[in-house]
Amino acid sequence: MEVKIHDSWKPLLKAEFEKDYFKALMAFVTSEYQKNTCYPPVSEIFQAFSTCPFEETKVVIIGQDPYHGEGQANGLCFSVNENTAHPPSLRNMFKELESDINKPYPESGNLLHWAKQGVLLLNATLSVRAHEAGSHQKMGWETFTDRVIKTISDNQKDVVFLLWGGFAKKKSKLIDTNKHTILTSGHPSPLSANRGFWFGNKHFSKTNAILEGKGYSPISW
């Protein structure tokens, strides 16, 4: 299977692609896509890396698993394709955007415009079998995406990491807080948000304030 990523990532991840675990992972994913319906489309598995060049990465949002419903996942965490109903977590993200920065609730749930501004929308696992949440976990994806997080931490500066929920917060150990900023909150899923752990975190305005304070252009959320 071809790994489609922006050229800027290739020298940083080349060694990872040559490791045995990654080769085994690619063999597993190739087999899964041949035998089963899987998401996102094979051409979009690495979309987070093809749409957000390494040197332009200013913000990292970490998700867990791609959506496993038909026509939803497009390779960017929390994002869905155009003309697709917004999943509950994305709805809560957009509600927070409304209250935080007075942005009208978006019609499209496609977050590609975030990615093109330097927001790496990274799921820990980059593929999933249809209607089987977590079906591609623990096959090597997490090893790879942890390495990506560590690579950004080691080779970039002033990146804002948004860690939402317990799973994402565990990634903080990979991040050098002397060079980068971590913002944490509950997950935007209804279970967490409705218990008061998401709404009001103001992560969108806080992220832009941090970026502007360091001389970078803000994200047009």
From TrEMBL:
Pfam annotation, one family: UDG
HAMAP family cross-referenced by the UniProt entry: UDG
Cellular compartment(s): Cytoplasm
Protein name, entry field: Uracil-DNA glycosylase
PANTHER family, per the entry: URACIL-DNA GLYCOSYLASE
Gene Ontology MF: a single term: uracil DNA N-glycosylase activity
Family annotation (NCBIfam families): PRK05254.1-1 (NF003588), PRK05254.1-2 (NF003589), PRK05254.1-4 (NF003591), PRK05254.1-5 (NF003592), ung (TIGR00628)
All residue ranges annotated as the Uracil-DNA glycosylase-like domain in the record: 49-211
